Amino acid sequence: MSTTTRLCWLDLREATSRDAIVEEALHQGIDGLVAAHPSELADLPPSIDRVLLSEEPVAPGTDLGVADVVVAPMTPAERRALRAAHPDVRFGVYVDVADAPTLEDACVAASTEDLTVIRFRDPTKIPLEIVLAAADACDGSVVTMAGDLEEAQIIYTVLEHGSDGVALRARAVGEATALRAAALGGSDPVKLDELRVVRTTHVGLGERACIDTCSYLGLDEGILVGSTSKGQVLCVSETHPLPYMPTRPFRVNAGAIHSYTLGENGRTRYLSELRAGDRVTAVRTDGSTRLVTVGRVKIESRPLISIDAESSDGRAVNLILQHDWHVRVLGPGAEVLNSTELRPGHIVLGHLPTADRHVGYPIREFCREQ
């Protein structure tokens, strides 16, 4: 399989709001728009791949119009003939998988062809897993057809790395934006800053939240947590060895329940409002991120410690955590720092958003947090 950026195609063959969908697709940088007839591609600009998809073989003398990519059932000999007749067009093989023989056809095409577009008749993703496994060491691209956005999101994650691309059946405005977000993983890098600890204070009993995710988190990975929307500290998962208890690399002992963390699309979430099935942003010490799914949130009463830190330009950050040695944050170079041993002068990693927030969304308005 190809390791390039995942392809995003919108299938316009059943679109009812075509003009609006096309406008959004162009704005979002969608890679290709799919049509059944050359005439349906004529008004599309050359800045996007104009994809002609036929479920029947295409003869070499067929008028392809302005198509940049043509996908159809074809043998290698038919593909060579089409390339000779249309040297400026990229050709891909279309396979409709409905049974074991057609699944084998898809595996052969995916492992030998430059481009394979596959429709799977059954809802199970086992056939797609088999195709992706067959094509794992190959250079071609596999584009899988999806009936809706939920299926597109699943296709992008099958066997972890997912299909090289998705052709989503377009029905409404907004789907191009959501498809692009799904292809990118929905999570942008964040800028991490070095924050100097200025004070730690035992603040008594309160409720803290442990965020148990559905993913193994890395040694240098955690979630950003803070008492205000404009400053968070990187709290590490329980991946590192602890006395008296096994590691729980899926868990972040995250902070007091009032705290913010980053969810999807840059929106902040209160730790207290997270539920099973929500997604939060996991962050590594190099600033790279990914979305992970919450499996459980454990809220319990524990002694709390308040950590005050500041940036090099004087911006204040506060984090309130469970007052216990095994609750940890990350410093430069992925240094693991036990929260109860932090002292003035210690350096921790954090994030300093500039926008104020309303119900978690960035907003330009006056807002003071203290």
Could you name the key traits of this structure?
6 helices; eight-stranded parallel barrel; alpha/beta; six-stranded antiparallel barrel; 22 strands; single chain; 16% helix; elongated; 370 residues
Write the layout of secondary structure elements.
Layout: E1 7-11, H1 18-28, E2 32-35, E3 49-53, E4 69-72, H2 76-85, E5 90-97, H3 100-112, E6 115-120, H4 126-134, E7 141-146, H5 149-155, E8 165-169, H6 175-184, E9 193-213, E10 221-228, E11 231-236, E12 251-256, E13 260-262, E14 268-270, E15 279-284, E16 289-310, E17 316-322, E18 328-331, E19 335-338, E20 347-351, E21 356-358, E22 361-363
Parallel strand pairs: 1-2, 1-8, 2-3, 3-4, 4-5, 5-6, 6-7, 7-8
Antiparallel strand pairs: 9-12, 9-16, 9-20, 10-11, 10-13, 10-15, 11-20, 13-14, 15-16, 16-17, 18-19, 21-22
Helix pairs in contact: 1-6, 3-4
Question: Gist?
Answer:
By secondary structure, this protein is of the alpha/beta class. The protein contains six helices and 22 strands. The strands form four sheets. An eight-stranded parallel barrel has the order 1-2-3-4-5-6-7-8, surrounded by five helices. It has a six-stranded antiparallel β-barrel with strand order 9-16-15-10-11-20.
- Helix segment tally: 6
> Gap between N and C termini, in Å?
51 Å
Total strand segments: 22
Tell me which oligomeric state these chains represent.
single chain
Helical content class = 10-25%
Q: What low-confidence regions span 5 or more consecutive residues with pLDDT below 50?
A: 357-362
Structural class: alpha/beta
Mind telling me the C-alpha Rg? 25 Å
Instruction: Note the overall shape.
Output: elongated
Global mean pLDDT = 90
Largest sheet, spatial ordering of strands? 1-2-3-4-5-6-7-8
Order of helices and strands: EHEEEHEHEHEHEHEEEEEEEEEEEEEE
Q: Summarize the biggest pleated sheet.
A: 8 strands, parallel, barrel
Beta content comes to 35-45%
